[in-house]
Amino acid sequence: MSSPTRSSEEINAKARRAGIASFIGTTIEWYDFYIYGTAAALVFGDIFFSDTLPSGVGTLLAFITLWAGFLARPIGGIIFGHLGDRIGRKNTLVITLMMMGVATVGIGLLPTYAQVGIWAPIGLVTLRVIQGVAVGGEWGGAVLIASENAPKGKSILYSAFAQQGSPAGNLLATIAFFFLSAMPTPSFLLYGWRIPFIISAVLVILGMIIRLKLEESDEMKAVLARKKVVKLPLAEVLRKHWVLVLLGAGALPLAQVTYFKNTFALSWATKELGYDRGTFLAAIAIALVVQFIVQPFGAVLVSKIDMRKAMCLMVIPEFVLMPAMFFAIRTGNFTIAVVAMCLATIPHSMFYGAIAGVLARAFPANIRYTGLSTAYQLCSLVVGGGTPVLAQWMLNTSGNIVGVAIASGLYALVSLICTLLLLRRTGYNAGELSTAEQADHDELELENTRAATSNSPQSEAGEIATGRATV
């Protein structure tokens, strides 16, 4: 939805720049976020907690620190959603990237439990919370900077640029630890794990250069020009759109199953099933390559056919494939495990590629950042960080993987039900304006009509301002 005064070439060029910048920025942010999960599965339980703890407890505590980042994500969503809806998408994205970089490098420099005792996990949790606040504000802005600058009818497709940052960042994190896994264990525990965190500084500088050159989204320019900024976006969201927030949060558990597949499964496979650390990281990397390749096709599918049908085609296979993956991993056969992980990856990856654009369409432009971020981070709070904790607890208490497999299938069921209910409220055709977008469009048309029929100097000034606005 771009300015009608621009040529189609200019619209497409700006859309591409916004999409690429969104992809690069989210790749860096997610790299920083995912290296923590990988390190939590491999090493944090050993170096940031007492070595006198019973087997499995250190890993469980490491996963709880991972959850701390998810607990902080709603705070980031609220803070930066507020700023993004009041001062623009671009500035908030610069701040979130800087915060994430400082916290990530800080983790790489932390002393261990053997060096400073209880201050080690305290420092770890503190920096993880800062990471969580940063990524909580990042996701919604990155999605909107891409989708709001998209050509008409292609907002879901362009939102997939931001979504590609997740598998790309995860893949970079996994590759980094894959190469480091060849180090002798004492060296890896001493300093090897720190390297991916410290080199994040280089990536953040690159991301900052790109983001500072980014142009504000056209829809946000329209909100600012028309003085339609909401004083308290969160209050507006919770007062008028709370049902959409709950349905959006309920649609997203399937987007969190990656923490079953990567974080929890990595710990389980290497510590209990006898997989070599590098071998299982290679399996995860292969699955992430599959994710990166197939994920955009979810946005394509949703854009081409009735969105209800598209969602069913993507989600229903996951009811079986994700639970089956755990039993395939349990065989101890690398080939069987990789094939199962790749198959299980396809449905939730395609869903993830489409769902951001679907959710962005649900909210009006002047509170969209807050609404989108609140829904996403509410799910992250309840489901995302709790997933490896839940899985590890179920494994510790039952001694088998059956409960974990069942839980992973339930994630898909909840997501499908809530997504279909959400689509009933927003519309089923991606090529048409959603309910919220249509309301924005009608309001703008009404304002333009009033301005055109008035001869007052104030009305003429208003017409000039709204003429720059975007639908």
TrEMBL record:
PROSITE patterns: MFS. This is MFS transporter. Keywords: Cell membrane, Membrane, Transmembrane, Transmembrane helix, Transport. Residues 439-471 are annotated as: Disordered. It holds the Pfam family MFS_1. It comes from Rhodococcus baikonurensis. The keyword Amino-acid biosynthesis does not apply. It is found in: Cell membrane. It is a multi-pass membrane protein. The chain crosses the membrane at residues 56-80, 92-112, 118-146, 167-185, 191-212, 241-260, 280-303, 310-329, 335-363, 375-395, 401-423. It comes from the Bacteria. The keyword Membrane applies. PANTHER family: INNER MEMBRANE METABOLITE TRANSPORT PROTEIN YHJE, SHIKIMATE TRANSPORTER. Residues 450-459 have a biased composition (Polar residues). InterPro entries: MFS, MFS_dom, MFS_trans_sf. Residues 18-427 form the Major facilitator superfamily (MFS) profile domain.
